[in-house]
Amino acid sequence: MVAQQPNHTHPLNIPVNHNTLREGFLQGLDSSTVASMIQTHVVSNPSSTPLSPVIDALFEATLADPSTSFNNRDPHPYLRRFLDASTYFPSSIVHAGVSGPLAGPRALQMQIRKYSMWMPSQPTTSPCSPPHSSSSSSSSSISDEMQRIASDRQKRKDHIQWARIHAAALELGILNMGRADADNTAYAYAMSRAFSEMMARDAVWECDEVEWVAGIYVLRAVIRTAIRGDRRQRDEYDELLRTYERRWKEIKDEARQALVTVCPLFNCAFLYSDGNA
Predict the structure, then answer these.
(1) Is 229 helix (H, G, I), strand (E, B) or coil?
(2) Could you tell me the residue ranges of all domains in the chain?
(3) How confident is the model at residue 270 (pLDDT cuts 50, 70, 90)?
(4) Which of 13, 35, 96, 115 is the most exposed place for a label (fewest CB within 10 A)?
(5) Other C-beta atoms within 10 Å of 273: how many?
(6) CA distances from 255 to 8, 58, 66, 217, 247 (A)
(7) What's the domain of life for this entry (predicted)?
(8) How far is CA 177 from CA 86, 172, 183, 235, 276, in A?
(9) CB within 8 Å of 217: residues ≥ 6 apart
């Protein structure tokens, strides 16, 4: 990727920070303006990975879209905006040793890997803790537990949204950008999918169903982007889909079933059987 030349600098007469970057992505400002804002932020906040806060702002924008409900928040448009802005990055923007336009995809790849692991909230009290004797302590414990539950619920939404971003990045080819072996088509294809396939295979066996939700989003993207005609791969994906379906049937609570079905499992199966793998 060769850096484009911005047509103008960003017209915003306000400091460029996390909030203004998020709003820039939300409002769909033109690519050169967003690139200029990002460059200003990078210069003001130097580090070896200066685009990490930018990716976090991008993530928040995908969650804050007021036009859709949480279950329908598609990150594809936001990733395209960031990718388009990245084409304007000069060589002075360096993220984890990668400079210029490829620094953007590099930053996104790193954040996707970072947030692909589910870290559950810890209970506020230990099972071995002695019982509280006072009513005030009891009230405090209830309040703390309610706060923990709310925090855990938000963490689950965040984890699912990162899985959506992971899936969108795979579908847009972002996970293959910047690889030294990009010209070796077959090898690059396999390597760009290796992490996603591993995540989809492992997630279904985890204890927490939020990991199954994340896994099925990524698996759907893996199936969508698979090369057709590979019988071995087709059989493997078919078995993996059946495993996800069996795990879903293990969930007895209707509210938790509703959470899991935010990504309809059978849509993935239909898409798969439609010949895309």
Answers:
(1) coil
(2) 1-114, 184-277
(3) very low
(4) 13
(5) 12
(6) 50, 29, 24, 19, 15
(7) Eukaryota
(8) 12, 10, 11, 28, 23
(9) 160, 163, 164, 166, 167, 263
